[in-house]
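input
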Amino acid sequence: MSTLSLAALFLGAAVIAVPISKYLGLGSVLGYLAAGIVLGPWGLNLFHQVDDLLHIAEFGVVLLLFIIGLELQPRRLWALRKSVFGLGGAQLLITAAILTPLAYWFGGMGLGPALIVALALALSSTAFALQTLAEKHQLSSKHGRAAFSILLFQDLAVIPLLAVVPLLAVGAASPDDSTVLGLIKVVVVLTAVILGGHYLLRHVLRIVARTGVHEIFTAMALLTVVGTALLMEAVGLSMALGAFLAGVLLADSDYRHELEADIEPFKSLLLGLFFMAVGMSVELGQIAEQPLRVLALVSGLVLIKFVVLYSLGRYNGLNAASARSLAISISQGGEFAFVILNVAVLHQIVPNADADLLILVVTLSMAVTPLLFSVNEWWMRRNPPETSNAAFDTPPEEVRHVIIAGFGRFGQIVGRVLRAKKIPFTALESDQEQVAYVRRVGNLAYS
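output
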């Protein structure tokens, strides 16, 4: 089948399945999953290279993290440090502490393999959780921000986890000079990305924007994400983490909104492709062979993570409704579990059959997430909370009441009057020189 035919096939399946799923109140993610199952080996069998498709579609997760980074200014990210390392660290450690003895006793694994499996299953799906929260406009809520903090810590934790897995292999060598050299490379690349993003990239974007060629600016935006992701991958770091860091560094730039608008269509399509690839990878044959075991493992994983997350949410001051929403949003397994389990199989730490079963469990736990959201919404309608959670991004009442759309001659007159009255304002303007001028005199301006 030609590339164009495949593109038409995927687009057609998405156009049919997603509206039906949305109409039924199940969200777009479940629609993409259903489309993938129908197209995959256990459905119409129209596509076979699922692993290749999954590898390409994972770039949608990278773009998603870049856009989220654009919405998080560095000072706001710094304000989240306690949630990221406190709440995120507690979730990972407590969940792994519960799953490790279960894998050791009931899975027949050694202590080392059981620990690796537990840590892999403790990770959640950034793509599924953030996409669903964004669809439901809950990313800026208390439970949405808590979920993001935990997911960000998990992305950070993947780096040392991947480094530890080979050390548990039979006959593994102790860390040597190459390990130290690898850490030095990581530090150098992170420093280069931070300094380059803060001091160099903004000027390059300004030069490209002055050409007035929109598609070139879009190409520059994509090049920024791809280049950062490749740099991170070259030193063994997460591509998604690199893209997130690039987004944070550009969150204060004049081009934040234009970058977000240019990247959004690519992000949405590739994320949809990622969810379809996950649907194709579901091994329905294995479910038919041992349905009760698979059901027990999926239910157990989701239930354990739900209880841990709900308890942590309540401990950190969330009300019952918010803690329940937090627990549901990231109670599934994550895409990084695929990577860790595959590395464990490669180093003969986890048997191939066990890894295949666990990957199926993680995939099914992802598919369950939209259904749990629907059940939670039904419960919320039946039992509405006493107080609603205000969004984090609600601006203070006393500042920036005025937005000037267009800062030409008339907009400048309005701006001078407001400035004379000492009333701050935000200007929206396509001319980069005007944007730079407005920022120099102390007001906000965006291109």
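quick obs: DSSP finds 20 helices and three strands in the chain.
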